[in-house]
Specification:
Blueprint (H helix, E strand, L loop, with lengths): L6 H8 L6 H9 L8 H9 L14 H5 L5 H25 L6 H12 L6 E7 L5 E9 L9 H10 L4 E7 L9 H17 L2 E8 L4 E3 L7
Parallel strand pairs: 3-4
Antiparallel strand pairs: 1-2, 1-3, 4-5
Helix pairs in contact: 2-3
C-alpha cells in the first residue's frame, strides 16, 4: 500500500472523517500478521455479519479473539474503543436533555445500571436549566454511611458549580424497594444540601426494568 493511502497517513492529511469503517478499525488494530495486514484483519471482522460494523456493538472478547490474527490484545483494543464511543455518545446525549421527571432519569440510565452485579452510587449534576452537567461515580459496594460520605458527594458538585443534583443507585437484586440505609443516607445528604446550597431533587433506585423515586413516593 502506498504510504499516502495508509489509514494513519490519511488521517493526518485528510482528516479522520475520510476513513472507511475498515480503515478506522485498522488504526485501532495497529499491526497485522505475516499473512494479513491490519486492514485485511479489519475487513475480515466486518465481513463476519451482515450488520458490518454493527457486529461490534455486542460482541465479546472471546468471539473476537477467535478470529485468526486478532487475539485477546487486539480484541481488548477494539472493544475498549467501542465502549469509549458508547460512553461519549451517552455523555453528549445526556447533556442535551432537560430533566423533567424521575422517569427521564430512569430511562436514560436503566440499561447502563440494571445489569451491575454491585451497587453503584452516582450523582447527576444539573445546571439552573435542569440540564445534566455530568454524572459522578461516588462509590461501588453495598451502601452505607462510610461509603457515601457527604464530602465525596458534594465536592464535584461544588467544583462544577452545579445548581442541583439527583442521587442515583442500583439494586443488583432487581427489587427497587429502598432499604433503611438508603433512606438514612438520603436524609443525611439532604441535610447537608441545605447547608451547601445545592438542592437534591430526587434519589432514584434502578432495578431490573423498574425504578423507585423518593420524590414520587413523597420521601423527599
Amino acid at each position: 500500500m502506498n504510504k499516502e493511502e495508509r489509514p494513519r497517513e490519511k488521517i493526518v492529511n485528510m482528516g479522520v472523517n475520510s476513513l472507511s469503517n475498515a480503515e478506522l478499525l485498522a488504526v485501532i488494530i495497529r499491526t497485522g500478521t505475516k499473512e494479513a495486514s491490519a486492514l485485511d484483519l479489519a475487513q475480515r471482522i466486518l465481513a463476519i455479519d451482515e450488520k458490518g460494523i454493527g457486529y461490534l456493538q455486542n460482541c465479546t472478547i472471546e468471539e473476537l479473539s477467535k478470529i485468526k490474527g486478532i487475539g485477546k490484545t487486539k480484541a481488548c483494543q477494539i472493544l475498549s474503543s467501542i465502549e469509549l464511543g458508547k460512553r461519549l455518545a451517552r455523555s453528549v446525549n445526556k447533556r442535551n436533555i432537560n430533566i423533567k421527571s424521575p422517569k427521564d432519569i430512569a430511562s436514560m440510565y436503566m440499561e447502563e445500571m440494571r445489569c451491575y452485579n454491585k451497587e453503584y452510587f452516582k450523582t447527576i449534576l444539573l445546571n439552573t436549566k435542569n440540564k445534566i452537567i455530568s454524572t459522578e461515580l461516588i462509590s461501588i459496594g453495598t451502601l452505607n454511611s462510610s461509603l457515601v460520605h457527604p464530602r465525596e458527594v458534594f465536592v464535584q458538585a461544588i467544583r462544577r458549580s452545579a445548581s442541583s443534583m439527583i442521587l442515583l443507585h442500583n439494586h443488583p437484586s432487581g427489587d427497587v424497594s429502598p432499604s433503611k440505609e438508603d433512606i438514612n443516607i438520603t436524609k443525611r445528604l439532604i441535610e447537608v444540601s441545605h447547608i451547601v446550597g445545592i438542592e437534591i431533587l430526587d434519589h432514584i433506585i434502578i432495578g431490573d426494568g423498574s425504578y423507585y423515586s423518593f420524590k414520587e413516593s413523597f420521601i423527599i
